[in-house]
From TrEMBL:
EC nos: 2.9.1.1
GO molecular function terms attached to this record: L-seryl-tRNA(Sec) selenium transferase activity
One Pfam match: SelA
Protein known as: L-seryl-tRNA(Sec) selenium transferase
Major place of residence: cytoplasm
Cellular compartment(s): Cytoplasm
Cofactor dependence: pyridoxal 5'-phosphate
Record keywords: Cytoplasm, Protein biosynthesis, Pyridoxal phosphate, Selenium, Transferase
In-chain residues carrying the UniProt-annotated modification N6-(pyridoxal phosphate)lysine: K295
Gene: selA
Function, as annotated: Converts seryl-tRNA(Sec) to selenocysteinyl-tRNA(Sec) required for selenoprotein biosynthesis.
Record pathway: Aminoacyl-tRNA biosynthesis; selenocysteinyl-tRNA(Sec) biosynthesis; selenocysteinyl-tRNA(Sec) from L-seryl-tRNA(Sec) (bacterial route): step 1/1
Record family assignment: Belongs to the SelA family.
Catalytic activity: L-seryl-tRNA(Sec) + selenophosphate + H(+) = L-selenocysteinyl-tRNA(Sec) + phosphate
Length: 476
C-alpha cells in the first residue's frame, strides 16, 4: 500500500472522543476513565495494524464500538471462576483441590460480608483467639490434647521443625525424605527451618535400631512422614508406629508425624485400602501430628497441627505463627466442615471429597448412558463416535497413590473433527469443561461431574460441537 492511501485510511480512524460519545450508553456500567483508556487502546491497535498491513480497511464505527464493548466486558469478567472437572481426579490441585461442603460455603457467606467474633469472646466481651472456634472440635475428632491451625500443611511442617529443632538434629528414615507437589521437599524445608537432617536406614528398609543408633544428645525430634504420594513396594520395612512411640518415650525425644492427607474417618468401606487416621496416630502416642485441611479431610486449605498441649503451646508462641496464620474465611469453612464429622454418616454425604469417593459405580455408569443418549438425540454422533467406557478415577492431590476407583466415562473419537480443537474449546467455555485424553480419544470421567452440573455439561459440549461444525474449523 502506498503512503498516501495509508494516510487517507488513518485519517478515517475515529477520534477517541467520538468513540466515547458513541459508547455513552455504557457510562453507568463502566467509569469514564476506563472507557477512554480502552477506546484509546483499541484505536491505537487498529492504527498499528493498518500501518503494518495486518488490516486492510478501517472498521466501521459500529464494529469499533463492538470491539470496545467486548474489551470492557472482558475486563469485568472474572478470570478466576468455576470449572467442570471431568478428569475424574477427585483432589485435583490445579482445579482447587477439595470442593467445599454446602455448610462450609454457607459459613463463609454468613460471616464474610460483615463483622464477626473472629477474635472476640462474646460471653466475656473481650479479646479471644481466632483458633478457639476450631480447637475444641479438632481435639474431639482426633482425641488430641490441643490443636492449632496454619495456612497449609507445608507451613505446619516448617513451623514444627523451626520451633522444635533449630540448630538441632531430626532423625528421619531415608525412605521418607519425600518431595510433595510444587518441589516442596522435606530435606529443603528442614534446611530452611534450621534443623539438621539425620537420615537413617535405606530407601527401602529402615529398622528401629537405625533410629536408636542415630540418637545423640543433639537429637531434638523423631520425624515420620507419611509417604502419601508414592508407594515403595516389595522388599521393604519401616518400624511400626508403636515401636517409634516406645523409642521416643524411652529416650524422651518427641515424635512428630507429618500425615499429609489428614483422614478423619476409615475409608475402607469406599474400597480404598486403609489410610491411617489422625486419631490412630494420636491414640498410638505420637506427640505432634500435622495434616492438610483440603486433602482427604475435604475442607479449606489449611495446615492442622494436633498433639500434646505442651508442644502445641510452644508452636502458638512462635513468632512465625503470625506470618502463617489463617484468615476468617478459612476458619469459617473449617469449622463447618469439622462439625459435619461429628456425625460420620453426615460427613460422607455432605463433604464432596468423601461423597465423590463413595459414589457407586453403577450410578456413574447410568449417568454416562443418559449422556450418550442425549448426545445422540442432538445429532452429535454424526461426526463423533460416542461410547460409554469403564475407566479408573484417581484420588489425586498426592493422596492414596496407586489407589484407583472404578468409574465410567464418555469417550469421544472422530475422524472429521479435531479433538484437540474440541478439548481447547471446552476449556474456553464461559463454564469451562476439563477433560482428559487417552491415546487419541477424549474422555470425560463422570465421577467428578456433580449432578447439578450435568445440564451445563451437555450444553457446553453441544455448543462446542455446533461451533466446530459451523466454522469448519482450521487446525491450530
Ligand atoms: C500434601 C503434603 C504436604 C503439604 O501439604 P499442603 O497442605 O499442600 O501444604 C506435606 N506433607 C505431606 C506428607 C503431604 O502429603
Amino acid at each position: 500500500m502506498d503512503q498516501s492511501q495509508l494516510h487517507v485510511k488513518l485519517r478515517h480512524l475515529p477520534a477517541v472522543h467520538k468513540v466515547l460519545s458513541a459508547t455513552s450508553y455504557l457510562e453507568e456500567q463502566y467509569p469514564f476513565a476506563l472507557r477512554s483508556e480502552v477506546a484509546a487502546q483499541t484505536i491505537a491497535e487498529i492504527r498499528e495494524q493498518l500501518v503494518n498491513g495486518c488490516m486492510d480497511e478501517v472498521p466501521t464505527i459500529e464494529r469499533l464500538i463492538d470491539m470496545v464493548q467486548t474489551r470492557l466486558q472482558e475486563i469485568q469478567q472474572m478470570h478466576y471462576r468455576p470449572v467442570i472437572n471431568a478428569t475424574g481426579v477427585i483432589l485435583h490441585t490445579n482445579l482447587g483441590r477439595a470442593p467445599l461442603a454446602h455448610d462450609a460455603v454457607r459459613a463463609i457467606v454468613d460471616t464474610a460480608g460483615g463483622y464477626s467474633n473472629l477474635e472476640y469472646r462474646l460471653e466475656e466481651g473481650r479479646r479471644g483467639s481466632r483458633y478457639e472456634h476450631v480447637e475444641q472440635l479438632l481435639c474431639k475428632l482426633t482425641g488430641a490434647e490441643a490443636a492449632f491451625v496454619v495456612n497449609n500443611n507445608a507451613a505446619a511442617v516448617f513451623l514444627v521443625l523451626r520451633e522444635m529443632a533449630t540448630d538441632r538434629e531430626v532423625i528421619i528414615s531415608r525412605g521418607q525424605i519425600v518431595e510433595i507437589g510444587g518441589s516442596f521437599r522435606i530435606s529443603e524445608v528442614m534446611r530452611e527451618s534450621g534443623g539438621k537432617l539425620v537420615e537413617v536406614g535405606t530407601t527401602n528398609k529402615t529398622h528401629l535400631y537405625d533410629y536408636e543408633r542415630a540418637i545423640t544428645p543433639e537429637t531434638a525430634l523423631l520425624l515420620r512422614v507419611h509417604t502419601s504420594n508414592f508407594r515403595i513396594i516389595g522388599f521393604t520395612e519401616e518400624p511400626e508406629l508403636s515401636e517409634l512411640v516406645s523409642l521416643s518415650k524411652e529416650k524422651h525425644i518427641p515424635l512428630y508425624e507429618d500425615l499429609g492427607s489428614g483422614c478423619l474417618i476409615d475409608l475402607a468401606p469406599f474400597g480404598v485400602s486403609s489410610e491411617p487416621t489422625v486419631a490412630e496416630s494420636i491414640r498410638a502416642g505420637v506427640d505432634i501430628v500435622s495434616f492438610s485441611g483440603d486433602k482427604l479431610l475435604g475442607g479449606a486449605q489449611a495446615g492442622i497441627v494436633v498433639g500434646k498441649a505442651e508442644y502445641i503451646k510452644r508452636l502458638k508462641r512462635n513468632q512465625l505463627t503470625r506470618a502463617l496464620r489463617v484468615d476468617k474465611l478459612t476458619l469459617a469453612a473449617l469449622e463447618a466442615t469439622l462439625k459435619l464429622y461429628l456425625t460420620p454418616e453426615q460427613a460422607v454425604d455432605k463433604i464432596p471429597t468423601l461423597w465423590l469417593m463413595k459414589r457407586p459405580v453403577a450410578d456413574i455408569q447410568g449417568i454416562a448412558m443418559q449422556l450418550q443418549e442425549r448426545f445422540l438425540e442432538s445429532g452429535m454422533n454424526e461426526r463423533l463416535d460416542i461410547q460409554v467406557v469403564p475407566i479408573q478415577s484417581q484420588i489425586g492431590g498426592g493422596s492414596l497413590p496407586g489407589e484407583e476407583l472404578p468409574s465410567y466415562g464418555l469417550q469421544l473419537e472422530s475422524r472429521s473433527i479435531s479433538l484437540t480443537d474440541f478439548e481447547y474449546e471446552l476449556r474456553n467455555l464461559p463454564l469451562p469443561i476439563i477433560a482428559r485424553f487417552h491415546k487419541d480419544a477424549l474422555i470425560f470421567d463422570l465421577r467428578t461431574v456433580f449432578p447439578e452440573q450435568i445440564d451445563a455439561f451437555v450444553k457446553g459440549c453441544e455448543d462446542v460441537y455446533g461451533k466446530l461444525c459451523t466454522f469448519n474449523y482450521v487446525d491450530r
